[in-house]
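Researcher: Please translate sequence to structure tokens.
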Amino acid sequence: MLPTLSNVLGGLGIFLLGMSLMSDGLKSFAGDSLRKALLLFTSRPLTAFLSGMGITALIQSSSATTLMTIGFVSAGILPFAQSVGVLMGASLGTTSTGWIVSLIGLNVSLSAYALLFVAAGAGIRLFVKGRGHFLGTALAGFGLIFLGIGFMQSGMGQLTAELDFSNLPSSGFLARALLLGIGLILTVLMQSCSAVMATNLMALSAGALNFEQAAALAIGAAIGTTVTAGLASIGASLHAKRSALALSAFNLTTGLLAFLLLPALLQVIAFFQRQFGLEEGPVSLAVFHSLFISLGVILFLPFVRPYARLIENLLPERDHGFTRYLDHSLLNLPAVALEAVGRSLRECHHALARAVSTRLENRAPAAEEAAAAVSRALPPLRDYLTAIAIECGDQAAETRRISDIHIMDHLARLATAVNAPDLRFGTERLAPWEHRLTQLLASLSAETPPPESPAALSAALADTRRRERPEILQAAARAGADPASLLQELDTLHWLDRIAHHLARIDAHFTLASSDDASDTPA
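Model: Translation complete:
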């Protein structure tokens, strides 16, 4: 009995390891393309659903798709309503694992060649540089998947011979409920619906379960993901909790509906078997799995926007601070985490633009309060940025992180400058510059095209400061002059020059951080 269980459990472990390696390798090999593709096709619920399904089927990881989606919502670049469609697509996309196992793993004997795939993948990983390195990881994972399937097939066949499964109830409501509960518990223990489905397919293929039992167990695995999603959301960000609730409610409703309609769904599968010559085996179970998830999609997708609003009302946003986009579960997704940091920095930038405008209106207390809020947000932003796990060789991400550090430095100096004392606004010499700076700040706050670039204003102010400084000092030294007022005017000119300089540097680094070619350093 022990060797048999070792084959089953060991094969399952190898299968899970292979799935993880193949998923990680394909994600890294695709690089930023997956992120761009996911964002490109999420403008409508249907395209969002199709992109979620396609990417999940490609990388064989609904968790990765879900995590990317949460990251986009957290960073404020994807509305939550659109993300719900992606999550539903990921739920259907994960059923592709059953198709791979049933069509290839159980019908084509690849276990004899699995070690060759592992060897080839390891060789590529060791000796190929660049993105090909990750392709080797994916290839090795592919080999391990079929090696694990081979062990599981062997072990499940022996287990069926050694144990008598005839005592298990095979039909009726109680039998289905029992198998549903087993599927749910296995999914919670394994933390993987794909692993439970692979085991389920092996048991069905070996004759340990009949088709009705396997179908009920598949429904239990789908419902079990609601528990795993709920556990994963404990202590997570608001956006992660919303996504977990949306996905859990979808899977729970879909699973319960499938359980209630199981006799009718089995009749549909029987019709497919007659029409297409399918056997009552693993392929039919893969069809069943995709069928009942599709039923949930048909039910939810037309109402995705009201559904998203319901979730948002159940979990309202209470934190409106600059750090609300930061989600520590995204630190292993550098592109998404950097988007979140960029979003926070832009909000800090806009807040300081409004604070400087307020200071130009001689409302110092209000300006100082806004600047203090930004100053409090910068340390946690800096800690989050340095904690992002950027892979060695990812030059674009590393350059963006450096640009963000520069932005934080200039924001901190700008916040300090807002609080400068004893400024004198509205003089004949400075009024035109104050007007130009006010116009630029208004465009930054409203995110509209500026009347002139921050760099042009900074250069003009720096030239004026160099030219006017000797004149102001000479005027202050003349008999009958008011030196205190003139020196205060000079301090204000220096202040304007300083503000414009920081705005220009922030703009340059934002431009670099958002450019596709992040290899050029701003002048």
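Researcher: Any highlights?
Model: Confidence is low (pLDDT under 50) at residues 516-523.
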